[in-house]
Amino acid sequence: MSFNTFGRVFRFTTWGESHGPALGATVDGCPPGIELDEAFIQQFLDRRKPGTSRFTTQRKEPDQVRILSGVFEGRTTGTPIQLMIENTDQRSKDYGDIAQAYRPGHADIAYQLKYGIRDYRGGGRSSARETAARVAAGGVAQAVLRDLLPDLQIIGYMVQMGTLHLDRSRFDAGQIGQNPFFLPDAAAVPEWESYLDGIRKAQNSVGAAIEVLVRHCPPGLGAPIYAKLDTDLAAAMMSINAVKGVEIGEGMGAAALTGTENADEIRMGNDGPRFLSNHAGGILGGISTGQDIVVRFSVKPTSSILTPRQTINSKGDEIDLITKGRHDPCVGIRAVPIAEAMAACVILDHLMLDRAQTGGNRGEIG
Amino acid sequence: MSFNTFGRVFRFTTWGESHGPALGATVDGCPPGIELDEAFIQQFLDRRKPGTSRFTTQRKEPDQVRILSGVFEGRTTGTPIQLMIENTDQRSKDYGDIAQAYRPGHADIAYQLKYGIRDYRGGGRSSARETAARVAAGGVAQAVLRDLLPDLQIIGYMVQMGTLHLDRSRFDAGQIGQNPFFLPDAAAVPEWESYLDGIRKAQNSVGAAIEVLVRHCPPGLGAPIYAKLDTDLAAAMMSINAVKGVEIGEGMGAAALTGTENADEIRMGNDGPRFLSNHAGGILGGISTGQDIVVRFSVKPTSSILTPRQTINSKGDEIDLITKGRHDPCVGIRAVPIAEAMAACVILDHLMLDRAQTGGNRGEIG
Amino acid sequence: MSFNTFGRVFRFTTWGESHGPALGATVDGCPPGIELDEAFIQQFLDRRKPGTSRFTTQRKEPDQVRILSGVFEGRTTGTPIQLMIENTDQRSKDYGDIAQAYRPGHADIAYQLKYGIRDYRGGGRSSARETAARVAAGGVAQAVLRDLLPDLQIIGYMVQMGTLHLDRSRFDAGQIGQNPFFLPDAAAVPEWESYLDGIRKAQNSVGAAIEVLVRHCPPGLGAPIYAKLDTDLAAAMMSINAVKGVEIGEGMGAAALTGTENADEIRMGNDGPRFLSNHAGGILGGISTGQDIVVRFSVKPTSSILTPRQTINSKGDEIDLITKGRHDPCVGIRAVPIAEAMAACVILDHLMLDRAQTGGNRGEIG
Amino acid sequence: MSFNTFGRVFRFTTWGESHGPALGATVDGCPPGIELDEAFIQQFLDRRKPGTSRFTTQRKEPDQVRILSGVFEGRTTGTPIQLMIENTDQRSKDYGDIAQAYRPGHADIAYQLKYGIRDYRGGGRSSARETAARVAAGGVAQAVLRDLLPDLQIIGYMVQMGTLHLDRSRFDAGQIGQNPFFLPDAAAVPEWESYLDGIRKAQNSVGAAIEVLVRHCPPGLGAPIYAKLDTDLAAAMMSINAVKGVEIGEGMGAAALTGTENADEIRMGNDGPRFLSNHAGGILGGISTGQDIVVRFSVKPTSSILTPRQTINSKGDEIDLITKGRHDPCVGIRAVPIAEAMAACVILDHLMLDRAQTGGNRGEIG
C-alpha cells in the first residue's frame, strides 16, 4: 500500500485522470482459474456510474470496462489483469474557471503545493472518477470471493445524509437496490428525495454516512499488529475521496461505554462460539471473529458548489469562486459501491495473507 | 505495513509479548547523523509507563529502554536501531483464569481461532504492552523530526472519558502534562478523577476519546491515492489496541454539514495561503495543507473487568468470567503518548517519502 | 518488488500477454515536473523492437507507446503513468502446436504446473514480449535521470555470443548503435553475422552475454543489507527472460583472485577518492562508490527451435516437438536495451530512496 | 525487501553491528504451531561460528542465540520471533588503524560517503558478523520447512577456492560436514588445507565459489515477473557480503550453449514430468519445476589483509594500510551455511506466497 497501490497479496494499482483518455486498474496477485468476464465487472461499475438519477452528476459516462490481460478463455491465469475504462464525456471547457483557482475544501491547492503541477481538468487525479477504477478492481475481488467464500455477503447502504438518519428498526436489505440512495428503507425515500432536491436547488451540497456490512466472513482474517483487519478497512475507507471518519462496530460511540456494556458476551452455538451482541463490529484484536463485520464512514459534502466562496488563485489574488460544471449534490451516495469494492479487496487480501501464514487452518474451540 | 511492520521508508517492527523476557522495536530507514540517546527516548516511555497514578494498571514496569544497535557516539548511523525493553514485573499466576477462557470483548478468542495457539499470559501479543515498543520507535521519529522540522509540535490529549467531554473553550495545552488524564483543562480534573474513581470502584471500566494535534506541519505530505496522509493516520490510530473509530477534522460530523458550511475558505497570508476555518483537519486530497492536522479516535473500555461476564472456555463450556489481575480502568488514558508516537512516525515517513519523490520542493502560489 | 511490480519508490508494474490486445506498464512514484512525451519513450522501444534485422524475430510490431495518464502539458504530474502498447501482429495459429505441448527449456510447463491454466499463445505472460513494457518504463526513468543526473550514462552492449567474445582492447562505445549486435567493435561485426547466420540456418539458437556500464553514477546509492545496489541490479537482470547468471565487476572470476589482486587501491583525486582499478564494479558494501558500475549477465539460447526435441504434452504423452513460429536465433541481442532500462529503473529508485533517507547529502572525505 | 528486511510473507529484519552489544533478527510472518527452540537454531549458527578451525577468524564468539518472543511452550505462535545474539569477544582496539582509513576493496569508504558517519569498529554494520543474524533467521525457516516440506534438502558446499576446483566426479554429500571447507570430496581436503595455509602465510586472502543444491523442492514456487524464484535467489545470494556473481544452473556458461544443447528434454516419469538434464537449474520462467535447484555464487577475497595496500584516510591523505585484527583468509568458507539459510528463507517465502495465490494447488499434467 504505497502511492497508488492497495493491498499486500491481492493488490491493485489505479491510474488515470478525470479528463485523460482513460483510467483503469492493474490487478496483481489474483488467484488463477477463477471465472471472470467483463459483464461480471460491469455490474459493479453500473451501480457507481454517474448520471443514473437527478441526484448524481449529469456527466454521462458509460464506464465500459475492458479486460486487456490476465484472463484467458474466461478464466483468470494468475497474471496481472489490466482493466481499462475510456473517458468519453470530458468537457474540459467547464473547468476553465478552476484552472487557476483553488476550490475551498478541495484537493486543488494541496496538489499544487505538493507537486507544483496538476491536471486541473475535472480535478485530474484527485477527482472521484478514480473510484471507477477501484470498483472495477473490486469486481475482480468479488469474482474470487464468489469462488472461495460463496456465502460471503458485502452489503453497503447509506445511514445518514445531512440531517436525515436511517431508522434502523426498518432496515430492509432488499430495498437497497431499489432507490437512488442505496437506502434500506423504502418508506424514507420520498423524504430523502425532497431533502436532497432542496440542497440542490439551494446550490449547495451535503455530507453523508455509509455503512458496510460483511456477513458470513470467516474468523481468523487479520494480521496483527500493523495489518489488523480493522486497520486495513479503516485505511481502505479513508482512502476514498472526501471521507473524514471511519468506525468499526460501536465506533466513536465506544468512548461513552463502560466495560460491562461493551463486552460482547459469548455462548456456545451449534457450530462454534456465538456472541450475544456485536459492539466489536466483528473484529477483536484486529482479527475477524466470524460475527458480522460492521464498518461505517462519513463523506464530506462536495466542495464544488454554485454558491460563491472566498479563495485565492494561482497568482495569490483573493477572489470569490463559483464552481460550475456537473457535480454530485451528495457525493456520498456513489460512495456505497466504492466502499463495497474496497471491503471486497480487503477481505480477499486478508484471506490470501492468512492462507499464506496459517494455510487457512483454524484453531479449534470445544 | 504488513504483519508487525509499520511505515514505508521510516519503518519499525515491534516484537514481544506481555510476559516474555523482553519486547522492543526494530527501527529501519532512519536518517543518519541524528543525535539520539536512551534518555531522549525514555522521556516518551515514561509518559506511557504503567503505575504512575491510581488510574492506570498497578503493574510496575520501569520500561527502561536500551539501544542495541544503529547509534554510534551519540548519533544514528542509518543502520537499524534495535530498542529493547525488558519485562520485569510479570505475574503470570494472575492469569491462570484466562489461560483457558476467553474474555468477552478481548482478542483472546480471535487469536485462538486464527493461530490455534496463543501465549495467554497477560494477553501475550495482544496486550497493550506492545505499545511500549511503538512509543520507543516514536521516540526515534521525534529525534529525527526535532532535527528536520524543528517547529513541528505533536500534542495529544483526552477529549472524552465515558460521559465527560472536554470543554474546548477552556483548552490549555500547558495543562496536559500536569494531570493524570492528559487533560488540557485544569479545572475539570477533579470531576474526571471522581468519575473514574466511581468506575473503578464499580469494578467496571470506561471508554475514551483522544485527539492529536500536529502544529506547523509543512504542506505537501501525503502520497495519494492509497498512501494519503489521512489514510495512514487512520491506519496508525486504528492499529492501537481497543481503538474503534478515527476522525480527521470534522470526522463523522462531516456527514451532517453542507458544502457551504464545510468549505474552508482561503485568503492570502504573509507566507502563503491562510485558511479561515479547519473543517478539513489540515488535509485535503490526502495531502497536508500546512494547517494544523487534527486526528481523533475512540478507545473502547478495558475488557478485563472484575464484574462477571458470560463466556466460554477452550473446551466450549459456557462459564461466567471475572478477570482478576492489574488492569487500567480507562485504557484510553495511556493511549495519548501512543498516539503521539504513531503520529510522529507517520509524519516522518511521509516527510521522507515526499523527499524521495519531489525532493522536498514545494509548488509556488502567488 | 512482488509479483509484477519492480521497485520501491520508483516502481512499475507490467501487464499483458504476447497475444492479448495490448500490454503495458503502470509507473508509479515518478517525480513531478519532468519533461516527458511519447517520442522520448519511443526511441528506447525502437531499439528493442522485433523485426529490425534478420537476426531477430520476424514478428512485425510497431511497439507504438501511448501515455494514458500522469503527464499533463508535456510534464509528469507525480501521478501514475500508464504506458500502453497495442499488439498488432499476433498470429495465434502459429502456436497451435504448443497449445498442448511443453517446449523443453521453456516456461510452458512451469506455468502449467503452478497455475493450472496458461495463455499458451506466443508464450502468453512468459513471452519476452513483456520486456517491451519494461523498456517503456525504463524510458520514464531515463527522462527523470536526464533531469536529476544529467551526466549519467547507461550503456549496454554484447560481450559474448556463443563461442564469440568481445575483444575489449577494441571497445568503442560509438559503434554500439551501428550494428545489429549492439557490439562495441565494428571490425568484429562480419564474423558475428556469419556466426549467427550459421546458427539460424542450422535451425538452432545460441546464448549470449551482455554488459551494462553505468558512468558518472554518484556515490552513496544502495541501501544495505537487503536493498544493496548490486542486489537490486542482480534481481533486475535475473528477472529478464532467459537470464541464468549475473555478475558485478569481477563476477564469478572473483573466486580465483587473492586479496592483494582484488584490492582496488585508492588515491586522492581532484574531486574525491580515485580508484586505481575496478574489480568491485563500482559497488562496495552494496553502495555505489562513484566508479563506473559494471554489470554483466548471460542469456540462455532461445528454447523455441526448429530442431526436434523430446518432450511431453498435456496428456502426459511423450512426443517430439519442433517449434515453428517467428523466433530470435539469439534472444540475447534484444536483451541489451532491456538491461539498460532495468539499470535506469534501479539507479533512479535508489537515487530516490537515498534522497528519502539522507536527503542526498554525502559524507565528506578530506 | 527494503533496507534491512528480506522476504515478502516470511520476512526477517536483521540488526546489529560487529562490536555493539548484540545483534539479531526479527522474524515476522512465521506460521504458527511449529516446533522451535534455541537448540534447533543453534546447530545452524554453530556451522557458521568463527574460530572453529585455523582457516577462519580467531575471534571467539559463542554465537549463542536467545529467542525473546514469538515462541510459547515450544511452538511458534505466529507473532514476531526475536532472535538475539550477544557479542562477547569484541576487541575494539584492534581496529584503531581503520577508524580513519578506508580498506581498499572494503565497504568502509562507501558507508562513509553515503551516511557521513559509520561505526568503524570491526566494520560495524558492513561486517560479515551480520550474517549470524540471518543464519538464525534461516534456522526458523528450516524449522518450518521441516514441518511443511519434510523431504526438502538444502545442501551447500564449496566448489572453488582460488585456483582449486571441486572435482564433481567425486562429489560425496556425506563428506561436506567432515572438513573445514564444506567440501564434498574427502580426498581433496589436504590439498585445500595446504593451499589456504600458503595464502594465510603469505599475508594474503583468496576468493571462493559456493553452490547450493535444493533437492525435492516442489514445482510451482516463484511469482513471475518480478518475484521469480531465481530472481529472489540471486538477490539473496548477492546480498551476502563479498558476493560478486550468482548463477542458476548453467549460469554464465549458458552464453556459450546452443538451443539444442540447452534444452532439458522431458519424459514422463512415474509421478510427473521427468527431465533428462538440468541446464535450467530447476527453474523455468522463474518457477520451480520440481528438479533440483542449483545456485552458485562467487565470494571475493577478504579485503582485510596484512599486506600493505595504497589508500586514503578521512583527511584525504594518501597512505599505505595494513589491516591487523582477526580475519578469515577465505571468507567464502563461512558463506556456505549463510547461503543455505538464505535459500531456506527464499523457499519458505515462496511456498507461503504460492499458498496465498494458488492455495498450493498444482496444475495436472497427464
UniProtKB/TrEMBL annotation, chains A, B, C, D:
Q: Where does FMN bind?
A: R125, S126, S127, N241, A242, G285, K300, P301, T302, S303, S304, R326
Which coenzyme or cofactor does it need?
Answer: FMNH2
Q: Where does NADP(+) bind?
A: R48, R54
- What Enzyme Commission number(s) does the record list for this chain? 4.2.3.5
Q: Name one GO cellular component term.
A: cytosol
GO-annotated molecular function: chorismate synthase activity; FMN binding
Tell me, which GO biological process terms does this entry list? amino acid biosynthetic process; aromatic amino acid family biosynthetic process; chorismate biosynthetic process
Which InterPro entries is this protein grouped with? Chorismate_synth (IPR000453), Chorismate_synth_AroC_sf (IPR035904), Chorismate_synthase_CS (IPR020541)
Any Pfam family matching the protein: Chorismate_synt
Instruction: Tell me what reaction this enzyme catalyses.
Output: 5-O-(1-carboxyvinyl)-3-phosphoshikimate = chorismate + phosphate
**Co-factor binding details:** Reduced FMN (FMNH(2)).
Instruction: Quote the function comment for this protein.
Output: This reaction introduces a second double bond into the aromatic ring system.
Q: Which NCBIfam families match?
A: aroC, PRK05382.1
**Family from the record:** Belongs to the chorismate synthase family.
Provide the protein name. Chorismate synthase
Organism for this UniProt entry:
Paracoccus sulfuroxidans
